[in-house]
Amino acid sequence: MNEEPLLSVQGLEKHFPVTKGLLQRQVGAVRAVDGISFDVRKGETLGLVGESGCGKTTTGRLITRLIEPSAGKIVYAGQDITHMSQGRLRPLRRDVQMIFQDPYSSLNPRHTVGAIVGAPFRIQGIKTEQGTKKAVQGILELVGLNPEHYNRYPHEFSGGQRQRIGIARTLALKPKLIIADEPVSALDVSIQAQVVNLLEDLQGELDLTYVVIAHDLSVVRHISDRVAVMYLGKIVEIADRKGLYESPMHPYTNALLSAVPIPDPKRRKERERIRLQGDVPSPLNPPPACRFHTRCWKAQEICTQVEPPLETLAPGHQVACHFPENAPGLAGGLADGVSGGAASAGAVPAGTDPA
Amino acid sequence: MSFLELKDLRIHFPTDDGLVKSVDGLSFTLERGRTLGIVGESGSGKSVTSLGILGLHKGGRARISGEIWLDGEELVGASQEHVRTLRGKKMAMIFQDPLSAMHPFYTVGDQIIEAYRIHNDVSKKVARKHAIDMLGRVGIPQPARRVDSYPHEFSGGMRQRAMIAMALSCDPELLIADEPTTALDVTVQAQILDLMRDLQRDFDAALIVITHDLGVVAELSDDILVMYGGKCVEYGTSDDIFERPEHPYTWGLLGSMPRLDREPTERLMPIKGSPPSLINVPSGCAFHPRCAFEERTAGLAKVEVPELRETEGGHLVRCHLPAERRRAIWRNEIKPNLEAS
């Protein structure tokens, strides 16, 4: 397992300037992504979850270099691509592809399926042995579409089929890394499952590495090997699937998990839910130190003053919290002492406010 | 008589391409204080049903037939003016996307005040006080100040709260929530679900929740109606639907969802194909082209529309397979796969 990661992100930042007035003076910045680091190993699926505005989509666009990072470093297969020029980046674009959320707006309505899926060949100037058309039809078949639909337009397909067209386009050049930004959230439940299964099959067949960005914790759990939880531009917890879902350490992860509605009427009575107050604060003006302290029921003085670093508290399990839950002996007496208090504190927000 | 009763409701839309049978023979009843969840995929007719109950298809191109009885009054045959006096007062709706359902040009308070004053002969001052009360009741902090805010100044969760306040301002007896939490983040969704549950208890209203999310339905509903191709395919208590579902489509929905409360199974079990076009609904059972058990009906599903029959104690299923066989399939073939492997 010690081989070099396929993708490595270090201290990545993206601040969007907010300007005002005639001179476009900068008056602030939206700190969409504010110093995140993680690795993606070859062949694995990393899930990136968080609520809207947490910076997960921006992260995806930074990795694919669709937008320019403000600071930090992106290393892909040993090459630093952080500020690589578009021209030098082009060969790498074959390797790194993106699946978009909305299958209605991500396909050009005036192009045929053949033109859409064949575009990567044209742009990269790739000649295939039996011609582009054959290659495209092969890919259409791979994603479960009828190759005879080569000359049809996107509006002739249903949502699930369109998403398959989008996936076919990303697969055209045999990429190694695929960034999927909410690949199933625009689809009906029964179609979601089809696309999730397709993504899993393709990963096995084509030896793909995925970064899946999603807000649906159940979907992410299903397809990911490791999961990173983001909050207001920071990663608050990153761990393998089992660790994250079975013993989450960050209070925010806990709250997220307990907020997911479970389709089992019996369980709804047993379950103790952690109710978070209010909404996610604005990334324009995030709370100081630990960004979650304004909604956290465990927050204490230190949380408003010192930013908790992302620390490894269990093998492969990193958390940025002063008072982590479920932490093994590593953190010592502090965590134990606090978790006793947390049990009672945890009950407070559950019982107090209907809001 | 039930508080709300639909009898064979049909809502069809003539279009250039053909007749769209959005709702095709839907019947159900609902009592005060109960919550009915209507589940279905896009195009199953669930939203059209709710707009039909509110009378919002009247005067358009829709062809509506059947009966809708609300508290002893028939609504399909009632005049538009009459339904209008009921709308807002007796029945109200919470829409999916509060940003597009609220007018961006008026303050949140103005919009609640307007709704309130249409149905109640009170001064602006009294109405304003009522609006502030309602905003406070749905958990908006500093309601006296926020009443003068515009919708864009609210966050998504707050906007949905404001919309609930607006819907409840005239104390309606029937509340329809169409995908009330779909546009919201999961932590905010949990807040809104709690709020809706509490408010329904306080107001003792009949609540219809329309959603594609089985999790949301399980959180809120007493009874569940599963729609497919404009028809009810299964109806029962939420225990019936989640513990002993009998329709292959319901099985498919349950098998399609990854769930947090179970081991991550190796593979999801999706329903093949995609939802039907309502212009060309498949012959016989509308679900038969996607059904994994269709061949076990010996071709019957292809030619004959199955009746909605009671299997036991108010649990209704529209399927050609005999009840014992469906139960055996659920027990032996479906349920084991949904659980931890």
From TrEMBL, chain A:
Keyword Chaperone among record annotations: no
* Native organism taxonomy: Bacteria, Bacillati, Actinomycetota, Actinomycetes, Streptosporangiales
Entry keywords, A to Z: ATP-binding, Nucleotide-binding, Transport
CDD domains, alphabetically?
A: ABC_NikE_OppD_transporters
State if DNA-binding is listed as a keyword: no
Q: Mind telling me which Gene3D superfamilies this protein's record contains? A: P-loop containing nucleotide triphosphate hydrolases (3.40.50.300)
Which SUPFAM superfamilies does this chain map to? P-loop containing nucleoside triphosphate hydrolases
Record-annotated ABC transporter domain positions: 7-257
Q: Which family does it belong to?
A: Belongs to the ABC transporter superfamily.
Q: Which Pfam families match?
A: ABC_tran (PF00005), oligo_HPY (PF08352)
Recorded protein name is ABC transporter domain-containing protein
Automatic annotation (TrEMBL), chain B:
Keywords attached to this entry: ATP-binding, Cell membrane, Membrane, Nucleotide-binding, Transport
List, alphabetically, the Pfam families matched.
ABC_tran, oligo_HPY
Question: Membrane-spanning residues where?
Answer: none
Entry's localization field: Cell membrane
Which part of the chain is the ABC transporter domain?
A: 4-254
Instruction: Please give the SMART domains that the UniProt record associates with this protein.
Output: AAA
Q: What is the membrane topology noted in the UniProt record heading this document?
A: Peripheral membrane protein
Principal location class:
membrane
One of the entry's Gene Ontology molecular-function terms is:
ATP binding
Cite the NCBIfam families for this sequence: oligo_HPY
What protein family does this chain belong to? Answer: Belongs to the ABC transporter superfamily.
What is this protein called in UniProt? Dipeptide/oligopeptide/nickel ABC transporter ATP-binding protein
